[in-house]
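Q: What would this complex look like in 3D?
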Amino acid sequence: MVQYTFIILQRITIKTYLKYSPQKPMTQFFEHLGNKTLSGFAKLGRSSFFLIDILTATTSVIPRPRLLINQLFSVGVLSFLIITISGLFVGMVLGLQGFYILSDFGAEETLGVMVAASLVRELGPVVAALLFAGRAGSALTAEIGLMKATEQLSGMEMMAIDPIKRIIAPRFLAGFISMPLLAALFSAIGVLGGHIVGVGILGVDDGSYWSQMQAGLDFNDDIINGVIKSIVFGFAVSWISLFEGYDAIPTSEGVSRATTRTVVNSAFTILGLDFILTALMFGDI
Amino acid sequence: MHNTKTQDTLVGLFVACGIAALFFMAMQISNLSAFSNDKTYTISAHFENSGGLKVKSPVSVAGVRVGRVSNISIDTNSYESIVEMQINTQYSLPDDTSASIYTAGLLGEQYISLEPGGSEDFIQANGVLDLTQSAIVLEQVIGQFLFDKAAED
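A: Here is my prediction, written as structure tokens for the whole assembly.
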């Protein structure tokens, strides 16, 4: 009796297993997983070759500075306003929040150090790079992607003009040059914003705002490291946005997906790189 | 689209603003302007305990900053700490100057305070200060206090 029930139960379990997990979707799942992994590596490989192509093509920009200036305008100058306004507000918020926390300890005189250190070390490079990816990186991807979709890039190749030299390299250099300048502007304006709120509105002493800041921040440790961070971010964002545009599927949907990927991947890369760089620069890991 | 001339001007303005911001950060935000180009000479002092003193901690005379700590090492014979400090050349100190390690405020950072003596001769570069007073370690003070209290009872 017990044996029979056991056999019946066993049959039911096998039947339900076969019914609800047939073999095909399981292999499909692994196929899909492997396919994703392999295509991910293939994309990484393509982007590495693309980067080597850009870097070797940058020398060809030197005889044509006009191309670079045009791109500095659309990448740098047009990002100027969003960066400065965001920097001002971020600095003002830091001044306000910092004041409320520091005044609990009677240490509101050190507001300058708090605002300047957080801006110069972290927020300046990171937030400026995120804004830069949203403002300039997405525009670069859309532009290059549309050029590919409308076969302008292949048209150039037909005319024996290398699109990497003519189109990509000037944009890459422009992003690489603009990013540190924009991050420096962001930090400087943010410190002034903190000054407006802290000294102008909340009544922190003007002299101690600046003198504590100068005593607390070191040129080599803080300012130079912040600039190095922003150079690395500029490199990464320009590379990602140009590659996504160049690698986009040449349809309207493909370009829109590539633009989204630029912003998402840039944000991940910026924040991940920021952790690594901070650990290398400031931590004793 | 802007014409070429305005575009050039705007790009130039942008680059100038960026460089001005970098300059502002170097000069106004960080300490590059202080003690960077000034000539200094090095003197050293032996302390029984240098406490929480760090490289770049300030060195002051009568509350005025005259230099900074450049190196802290240990003397392998006497097991004392050797603190080297760079003093601005515009300040010359008598050779019987004494050095003490104090704390700015109750919980602030530690710094070296130099008290000039009455000697006629000035200390030379790479000179050694003989009179020193070690850092006060709060735990030792509290321990001493508790020990004394217990002895009273």
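A: To summarize the key features: The interface with chain A takes residues 2, 7-8, 10-11, 13-15, 17-22, 24-26, 28-34, 36, 56 of chain B (CB under 8 Å). Chain B has a mean pLDDT of 83.
Q: Very helpful, thank you.
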